[in-house]
Amino acid sequence: MPSLWRTAGCWEMWSVGVDIDEGLWQGWSPPRPGGISMGVGRIVASGFRFGRPARIDAPIGRHYRCGERPVETGRTARRVSTACRPAIHPTATVWKLLGAPASRRLPRDQAGGSRIVPAAVSADRPRTRRTAPPVLVRQVRNGVEESVHRGDIVETDVNGRLLRALGDPDHVVNLRSCVKPFGMVSLIEAGGIEAFDLGPPELAIMASSHSGEDLHVRTLQGVYRRAGISQSLLACGAEKMPLDELTAARLARDGEKASPVRHMCSGQHSVFLLLCKLRGWEPDGYWLEEHPAQLAYRDVVARAFGTTTSKLRLGIDGCGIPTYAFPLRAIARAYAFLADPSAVAASDTRAPVAPALRTVRDAMLAHPEMVAGTRDRIDTSVMKALPDRLVSKGGMEALRGLAILAGPRGNGARVPASGMAIKIEDGDGYDRATWAATIEALRQAGVLSGQALRVLGRYHRPVETDPHGRVSAEAIPSFELAPLGELIR
User: Fold this and answer.
1) What digits encode the pLDDT tens for the residues 104-147?
2) What is the sign of the dihedral through the CA atoms of 77, 82, 85 and 90?
C-alpha cells in the first residue's frame, strides 16, 4: 500500500521512481520538509493533491526548493511543475529513492550512502553520489531467490591505485576490528616485545578477534603474568562470549560464567593495558577517547593510513573503545601496506610504521589459529588454506580486510602485493554473504584456485540444512569484479 502523509490539512499520495542502470522502478514515499535533493540518476515523482496530478522530472546534481525551476541546460533539463508550488505546500519534498528495483526502499542513512536531507541542514551534511550497492550474494531455495546481499569490493595496490572493484570504492565504513593489526604497532614501537618478552603467538592474538577458546585464554593469561597486570582490568565485557560454540556450551554445562578474557576483543584491550604498564599511565578509563593509551593507538592508526589524528573520524566500537571510519579504498590501501610494508617509499609518511607492521604481519601469518579460532572461523581457514599468502581480518557489520602478499596469481604471473576490502551492506547477520563474497573475490583475483578453493568450498557456497541434515538453501556468489573503467568515481 502507498504511504499517506497528512500535511497542511490535506492527504497526499506520492509515487517515486528513479532512472538507474536497472531501469525505472517505482516506490512510495511521503513528502518531507525541505527540498528535492538530486544525486546520481534521474528522479521522477508523481502524485495527487486534491485530485490534481502533479509531476517532477528533474535533472541530477541540483537541490531544488519548492517553487524553483531548473535552468535549461540541454537534454538533462526538466521542469518542476505544480508539485512544489508554495501555494500548495511550501515545504513539500519528494525524497530520492535509490537502489534495487524493489517496490519500497528507503533512502540510505549512513556515512557514504545516499542521504536526503532537509534544506535547513543540507549545509551540515555532505551530499554524495552513491547509489545502491550491487548484489554480491543470492540466497536461493528450490531454485527460488529468497533474498540478496548487496555490498562493495575494492582491491588496490600499496599506493592506493585501484586494481579491481565492484560498487563504490569511496563508501565510508567503520573499521571495527579491521583496525587491530595496525593498532598493535603502538605496543611494538613502545618497546613492548622486549619489555614483556612477547612472541609471535602473543602478538597475533593482540591483533585478533579470537573465539575465546582455552588456547586463547592461556596465551593472554601468560602475558598478564609476565607483565604483572590483572585480567580484571579488562573493560571489554563478556556478553555473548565466547564465540566458540563448543567452549560456550562447556562453560554453560559447568556453570562457569564467561570472563572478559574470553571476549573476542580482549587481545586488543590487552594492548592498552600493556601500554599503561609500560608508560606508567593509570589504567582506569583506558577505553576513553582521550586516555593516553588511546592517543598512542590513534597516532599509529593515523600514520598507518597515511593521515593525521585530527582528520580521523571517531565512533564508539561495540567493546567500548574508539573506532575509526575510512573509505573502502583507504582500507584496501592499508591492507596492501600490511601485505608488503617494505613497498612504500622512504619519503612516504607511512614508512616509519613499516618495520613494526611487518612484525605484526609475520606473527599473524605464523599463527592463524590466534587470529580467529580453531573451529569454523573463515579468517583462520583462509589463512591456513593459503599459508604465508595472505592475512584475513574481519570486522563486525560484515567488513573484511585482506592483505594479499606478492606472489603468483591464477595465470601464473607473479603479482605485487595488494589489499582488498569487502563490505556487505546489510551487516550479514548469517555470515553467509561475507563468506561467499570473500572466497569468490579471492577466486576472481586469482588468489584462490585448485585444492585451496575446494578446501574452502563450505565458505564459497554456504548451505542451510533442515533438522534432518538435508540441504534446503544455498548462498550463491553472483558478481563479477568490474574493470577499472566501470567503477563509480
Assistant:
1) 233 333 333 333 233 333 344 455 555 789 999 999 999 999 99
2) negative
H/E stretch holding 418 reads strand 418-424
Distance CA 165, CA 154 (A): 4
Taking the C-alpha atoms of residue 96 and residue 36, their distance in angstroms, rounded to an integer, is 8
Q: CA 271, CA 184: separation in Å to the nearest integer?
A: 7
Among residues 44, 62, 86, the one where a domain terminates is 86
- CB count within 10 Å of CB 471 equals 10
* Beta pairing class for 407-408 and 414-415: antiparallel
* Same domain as 37, residue 168: no
Does 204 share its domain with 325?
A: yes
- The pLDDT of residue 411 is 78
Angle 114-119-121 from CA coordinates, rounded to 5° = 80
Is the same domain home to 41 and 158? Answer: no
Question: Among 324, 323, 350, which residue's Cα sits nearest to residue 337?
Answer: 350
pTM: 0.75
Is 189 found in the same domain as 315? yes
Residues 71 and 171 reside in one and the same domain: no
Same domain, yes or no, for 358 and 433?
yes
Residue at a domain's end among 32, 54, 86: 86
At position 165, the amino acid (one-letter code) is A
Q: How many domains does the chain have?
A: 2
**Torsion of the alpha carbons at 64, 108, 399 and 243, rounded to the nearest 10:** 150
pLDDT > 50? residue 293:
yes
Beta partners for 423? Answer: 152, 399
CA distance 205 to 184: 10
Cα 211 from Cα 44, distance rounded (Å):
49
Q: In this structure, is residue 42 part of a structural domain?
A: yes
- Please give the pLDDT value at position 436: 98
SS3 of 435, please? helix
Q: What is the residue range of 68's domain?
A: 4-86
- Claim to verify: residue 60 and residue 183 sit in the same structural domain: no
Peptide bond into 242 cis (omega under 30): yes
Q: How far apart are CA 220 and CA 234, in angstroms?
A: 11
Would you place residue 93 in the very low, low, confident or very high pLDDT band (cuts 50, 70, 90)?
Answer: very low
